[in-house]
Design a protein that fits this description.
The protein is of the alpha/beta class. The protein is built from 13 helices and 17 strands. Helix content is 38%, strand content 19%. Helix 4 packs parallel to helix 10 and helix 11 packs parallel to helix 13. Bound molecules: pyridoxal-5'-phosphate. Pyridoxal-5'-phosphate binds next to helix 5.
Length: 387
C-alpha cells in the first residue's frame, strides 16, 4: 500500500485531502517525497504564521522541550504566564484561559457568557446570538454555534440556545436580540470557512453598541483572523471596537496546538476554581512557541502584510476569470469562474499550495512571505485561473 492508500485504510475518512505528501518545509516552501518544491500560500489553514520551521520559532520550541515538556495546570510555569501577560499587555485584556484548539477556545467563551449572564440577569439568559454562514468549531456546542445547516444535520440534537442572524443585517439582529434572552453575541469579523467574507463596519459597531447598552458579552472569534492574519494583531482592531472577549488559536503558536480565550474587564472574574480546565491547555512548549510568534507581530510587519495584500488584490482583480476578491490582509478569498477545487489541484501540479473556502480560492500566506516568492506564486495562480 502506498501512503495515500494506507491513510484511507487506517484514518477515518473525514477529510477531503489533496494528493500531496509533505515531507519537509522551510519558510514559505515545502517539499514532497520526490523532492518537488511548492510555494505554500495556505500555512496549514492559517497556522504556520511564519511558515515552516521558522528559525526563531524552532529555537524557542527546542529550548523549552529540553527544559520540560509538560507540568499539568496543578503547578506554575513561566512560559504560560509570560504568554498571558503578553496577550493582555498587547490588547488591554485582563485575563486568559488556555486550551488546545479553536473549538475549545470558543467553548470556554460560551461558558463565560452563560455564567456572566446568569450572575447578572438570571439563568434564563442563556442564548448566544451568532451569524448564519459562520464557523466556530466541530464540538457539539461549537457546531451549534456555527450557523450552517450543513454541519448540523448529522448530529442532532444539538446544544440548545443558539440563535443565528444574517451577517450585516442590523434590523434582523436587533429584532432577535430584543425578542430573546441573550447571554452573548459571538462573531468572526471575517467569516473564513464561510467564504472569506468581512463583516461591514456598521454592523460590527451596532453589535458593540447594543451589547454594551444591554450588558451582553460581545465575543469575537479570532481563531482564523487573529495573530496578525488580517494585517492587525486581532481582526477586531480593523473595526475600531474592543470586544468583551475574544477566542484565538490557529496561528497563535505558529504550528503547535494552543487555544486562548482572552477576556476584558467585564468577564475577568466570571470563571473560578474548578469551573473550567484543560490537561494540555497552556502547555509550556506551545506557550514558548506562541511567545516567539507574538513578539514578532509588530506594526511594521502588519504594514508589510497590508502592502502585499494590496498587491495580490490588485493583480487578481485584473485577472480574467476572477469575479471578485474579498478579505482582509493575508486572509483572501477569490471568486472565480472556474471551480475553486480544480484551480487548487492545478496549482499543486504547478508547485503552489492554495486553499478553498466554499466556492472560492482562499489564500492564507505566511505573514513574512517575501515579495519575490509571493509574486512568483501569484503569477502561477493567475496562469491557472486564466488558462
Ligand atoms: C473562525 C473559526 N473558529 C473556530 C475554528 C475551529 O478551530 P479548531 O479546528 O482549532 O478547533 C475554526 C477552524 O477553522 C475557525 O476558522
Amino acid at each position: 500500500m502506498n501512503l495515500f492508500e494506507k491513510d484511507k485504510q487506517y484514518i477515518m475518512n473525514t477529510y477531503g485531502r489533496f494528493p500531496l505528501n509533505i515531507v519537509k518545509g522551510k519558510g514559505s516552501f515545502c517539499y514532497d517525497e520526490k523532492g518537488k518544491k511548492y510555494i505554500d500560500l495556505g500555512t496549514g489553514i492559517a497556522v504556520n504564521t511564519f511558515g515552516f520551521c521558522d528559525k526563531k520559532w524552532v529555537k524557542a520550541v527546542k529550548k523549552q522541550v529540553n527544559l520540560f515538556q509538560h507540568t499539568s495546570n496543578l503547578y506554575y510555569q513561566k512560559p504560560c504566564v509570560d504568554l498571558a501577560e503578553n496577550l493582555c499587555l498587547k490588547t488591554g485584556a485582563k485575563k486568559v484561559f488556555f486550551s488546545n484548539s479553536g473549538a475549545e477556545a470558543n467553548e470556554c467563551a460560551i461558558k463565560i457568557a452563560r455564567k456572566y449572564a446568569e450572575l447578572k440577569k438570571g439563568k434564563e439568559y442563556y442564548n448566544i446570538l451568532t451569524l448564519k454562514n459562520s464557523f466556530h468549531g466541530r464540538t457539539i456546542t461549537t457546531l451549534s454555534a456555527t450557523g450552517q445547516e450543513v454541519f448540523h444535520k448529522d448530529f442532532t440534537p444539538l446544544t440548545q440556545g443558539f440563535i443565528h442572524t444574517e451577517a450585516n443585517d442590523i434590523e434582523m439582529a436587533k429584532s432577535l436580540l430584543e425578542s430573546n434572552k441573550i447571554a452573548g453575541v459571538l462573531v468572526e469579523v471575517v467569516q473564513g470557512e464561510g467564504g472569506v467574507m468581512p463583516l461591514k463596519k456598521e454592523f460590527v459597531q451596532f453589535l458593540r453598541e447594543y451589547t454594551k447598552k444591554n450588558d451582553i458579552l460581545f465575543m469575537i472569534d479570532e481563531v482564523q483572523t487573529g495573530n496578525g492574519r488580517t494585517g492587525e494583531l486581532y481582526g477586531y482592531m480593523n473595526y475600531g471596537i474592543t470586544p468583551d472577549l475574544f477566542s484565538t488559536a490557529k496561528g497563535l503558536a505558529g504550528g503547535l496546538p494552543l487555544g486562548a480565550t482572552v477576556v476584558f474587564d467585564k468577564a475577568e472574574n466570571v470563571l473560578g476554581a474548578g469551573m473550567h480546565g484543560s490537561t494540555f491547555g497552556g502547555n509550556p512548549v506551545c506557550a514558548s512557541a506562541a511567545l516567539s510568534i507574538l513578539n514578532r507581530l509588530t506594526p511594521q510587519l502588519f504594514d508589510q502584510v497590508k502592502q502585499k495584500s494590496q498587491y495580490v488584490i490588485s493583480r487578481l482583480e485584473k485577472c480574467k476569470g476572477v469575479k471578485n476578491v474579498s478579505g482582509l490582509g493575508f486572509m483572501l478569498g477569490i471568486e472565480t469562474e472556474k471551480d475553486a477545487k480544480s484551480i487548487a489541484l492545478k496549482c499543486i501540479e504547478r508547485g503552489v499550495l492554495v486553499l478553498t473556502a466554499k466556492n472560492k480560492v482562499r489564500l492564507l500566506p505566511p505573514l513574512n512571505v517575501s515579495f519575490k516568492t509571493l509574486e512568483k506564486a501569484i503569477d502561477i495562480l493567475i496562469d491557472v485561473i486564466e488558462e
